[in-house]
Amino acid sequence: MVTYDRLIFELSQPGRSAYSLPKSNFPEYDLQSLQDLMRTETPCLPEVFETDVVRHYTNISQKNFGVETGFYPLGSCTMKYNPKINDEIVANPMFDAIHPLQPAFSIQGVLKLYHELQMMLSEISGLAEFTLNPYAGAHGELTGLMIMKAYHEQRGDYRRKKVIVPDSAHGTNPASTVVSGMEVVEIRSNMQGRVDLEQLKAVLSDDIAGMMLTNPNTLGMFEPDICEITKLVHDAGGLMYYDGANLNAILGKVRPGDMGFDIMHINLHKTFSTPHGGGGPGSGPVGVKQPLVDFLPNPRVKCLDGHYYIQNEKDSIGRISAFFGNFKVWLRALVYIRTLGKENLACVGEYATLNANYVREALKGYYELPIAGFCMHECVFDGLKDQTTGIKTLDVAKRLLDYRMHAPTIYFPLLFHQAIMIEPTETESKQTLDEFIAIMIKIALEAKSDPESLRNAPHDTPVGRIDEVFAARQMILTYKDYLNQKFD
């Protein structure tokens, strides 16, 4: 019996073929002069029938887990369902034949869409203008920090090289700061998981370029002192940067610009409807207040009397991408926003917050809740409430896979040793949440009655528990690696 759990290489038989091509009409070419470019050995490729290929890839696809096959409470990545109508519109063949080097008069429709989304994001965020050019959230962070740096340097204030970053921040914040050529000043959170105002005051000086902040933060907690925080930084001569990774929680309810933020990026793929996973695709538009508009990256899309044109500004930080960003990602966002409308965007934040608090209240008797008070779009636990079982967060996450639900983010944020971050998103029903809650409670009870089952989980997945450290140090990337693997 043929089993398609085997690798496609293991199905290979000499002489089999999955394709048939007509004889080439081109003359043969002597490759002897290109010896340095030629292979020294035959490539390791499987010889299989077309049916083998189809079954192989279909089998692999069915092993993959996605938001369309099960619940995906993956905090900090907003793995939510995205309407298929958005994909259908983006797939219109009319969008496939355009080229970014076409003259502006021939792509007026596309430039209009770009400009309209800019204006929509400005309204949603409370900022003056946006660029859609950055390719991802981290790319947007770098762009925003380059704008911050250019602003200070144009004023002749070259001392401002330090950026304040809370210890609860996403890891990209300090990384982007360093890449931009500035220094990180970390401040600790207070006992409520929020910015410690006294810590902030202690580091403010004339060499501070600005502060990066996510609100709500990675604990899912809103900063009640946000207006005071922004005032303190502004009074010290710095700028406020809003990490838009958690914009999902406040969409249509609160605007970063109104909180006092000067620069922000939006993880467009997370908040505004692009299926996101496995590293992409992404989009990280950057918005700024009016005094910073001229620093936005080139090229810029402008409108005059209904005519759209492309312009490059002399004070711009320059190009940060080849052209205008990931076109079909921001096109999906435009469709998503138009579909919901201004009045329904507010429902996103409301339902995301309601769902997270529902899960939080249901599980707090079984999982340790390190911070009291209501959360926003995500809730964070610090492992099991009963610590005597010896069961760790990793064990809980692995066991959850046996129940056909994806694991939430674990061991982040770094403030708690056994962190479990659950972000149910606004698209999940109460029925799904109740099923998830029941399974999480069952796992907590299993930790007492059958801890070994959790330590060896998962049991019913295509692949059992993997040694991540070994896999990282001795990667098997090709079939030849697989044949030659040596276990130390």
Report on the architecture of this protein:
By secondary structure, the chain is of the alpha/beta class. It has two domains: 84-340, Type I PLP-dependent aspartate aminotransferase-like (Major domain) (Aspartate Aminotransferase, domain 2); 347-472, Aspartate Aminotransferase, domain 1 (Alpha-Beta Complex). Helix content is 35%, strand content 11%. The chain has 15 helices and twelve strands. It has helices at residues 50-63, 84-90, 108-125, 137-154, 172-179, 197-203, 226-235, 256-259, 268-271, 327-363, 393-402, 430-449, 451-455, 468-473, 479-483, and strands spanning 129-131, 162-166, 183-187, 208-213, 239-244, 263-266, 286-288, 300-304, 307-311, 379-382, 409-410, 419-422. A seven-stranded mixed sheet has the order 1-7-6-5-4-2-3, sandwiched between helices. Helix 5 (172-179) links the parallel strand 2 and strand 3 (183-187). The two termini are 34 Å apart. The model has no long low-confidence stretch (mean pLDDT 91).
Main β-sheet, in a few words?
Answer: 7 strands, mixed
Helix content: 25-40%
End-to-end gap: 34 Å
CATH topology of the largest domain: Aspartate Aminotransferase, domain 2
| Strand runs, count | 12
**Content of β-strand:** 5-15%
Structural class, from helix and strand content? Answer: alpha/beta
Strand order of the largest sheet: 1-7-6-5-4-2-3
The structural domain count equals 2
Number of helices: 15
CATH architecture of the largest domain: 3-Layer(aba) Sandwich
